[in-house]
Amino acid sequence: MFCLVCRATNDWVLPILYHSIRFTTTAQVDIFIKAHDVPVDRLASRLLLVRNLYFGRTPITQGDLTYTSPWPVDTIARMLWMCRFIETLTILYLDMEKWHKFEHAIPATLTTLVMGPIHGTFSAEALTHRPRITYFTSCHTPLSHEEFMSTITYPTMRKLRKILPHLKKSSTLESLEIVITGPAIYSDTSYNILQKQIPQVTDDKRISLTQVVTHDWVSIPYAEFQTTRREYVFQAEHLCDLHPETAQGEKTAA
Predict the structure, then answer these.
(1) Distance between CA atoms of 207 and 239, rounded to whole angstroms?
(2) Disulfide check for 114: which of 47, 90, 183, 222 has CB 3.0–4.6 Å away?
(3) Strands across the sheet containing 159-163
(4) Can you give the pLDDT at residue 244?
(5) What is the 3-state secondary structure (H, E, C) of the chain?
(6) 110: closest CA among 51, 44, 155?
(7) pLDDT, tens digit, for every residue of 39-83?
(8) The pLDDT of residue 242
(9) How many CB atoms lie within 10 A of CB 120?
(10) Which of 161, 176, 124, 119 is nearest to 142 (CA)?
(11) What's phi and psi for 153, nearest 5 deg?
(12) Phi first, then psi: what are they for 54, rounded to 5°?
């Protein structure tokens, strides 16, 4: 009877203990994997209970998993491979050149991924097991156009979040303009959503939101190019009107 009670308690406690695991140091990673990567089913099978993994510093613990320190990349890749039912993965301060070493180990069950800062090139399509990621957060990292497009068009992606430094760090920046482009049938929705959400996250008056209804975003920089040209031509013509002798002299010299 006592054994049955212990087993029932164990079955109830283990999922709680293993659901969410945080690592801030290399030593923690090494100790954990050595304790579980063994030919003992009852220990190795506990990794199947892990759902939420966190690597990197926290607001209160610095640790040594920092951007400039050597991470135990192979050990972490092994852990990701063994934790086959991870749903949420947070990796902070990983060297931007190391992420690709994890791509083959990310399990198909992953739905939420948080990375940064400067996490390097990310492509959900490059993940071997094609996880059903629905929510991707990129922290303090510029995304190329290719990365942005491949992320928002990934079949299961539902939410993309960018965490950026606050503008108050800049004393010279006068404005940050967010421009939504495209046909009205598409851009209206994006514009209306952002119009409601931006005031909820910041009251910085330098941030503005603009909608440009166009079928080709190139029309925006091209129109600005044309405006600059017209302004110059206008100034040149005005100068000729004020100093006709200068213009006549130039024609004579020609």
Answers:
(1) 38
(2) 90
(3) 20-23, 52-55, 88-92, 112-116, 135-139, 159-163
(4) 60
(5) CHHHHHHHHHHHHHHHHHHEEEECCHHHHHHHHHHHCCCCHHHHHHHHHCCEEEECCCCCCCCCCCCCCCCCHHHHHHHHHHCCCCCEEEEECCCCCCHHHHCCCCCCCCCEEEEECCCCCCCHHHCCCCCCCCEEEEECCCCCHHHHHHHHCCCCCCEEEEECCCHHHCCCCCCEEEEEEECHHHHHHHHHHHHHHHHHHCCCCCEEEEEEECCCCCHHHHHHHHHHHHHHHHHHHHHHHHCHHHHHHHHHHC
(6) 51
(7) 888 888 999 999 999 999 998 899 999 998 999 999 999 999 999
(8) 65
(9) 15
(10) 119
(11) -100, 0
(12) -135, 125
CA dist., res. 185 & res. 165, Å (int)? 32
Please write the tens of the pLDDT for every residue from 7-26: 656 777 899 999 999 999 99
> At what angle are helices 26-36 and 73-82 packed, to 10 degrees?
40
Amino acid code (one letter) for 201: V
d(CA 44, CA 83) in angstroms, rounded, equals: 9
d(Cα 209, Cα 18) in Å, to the nearest integer? 44
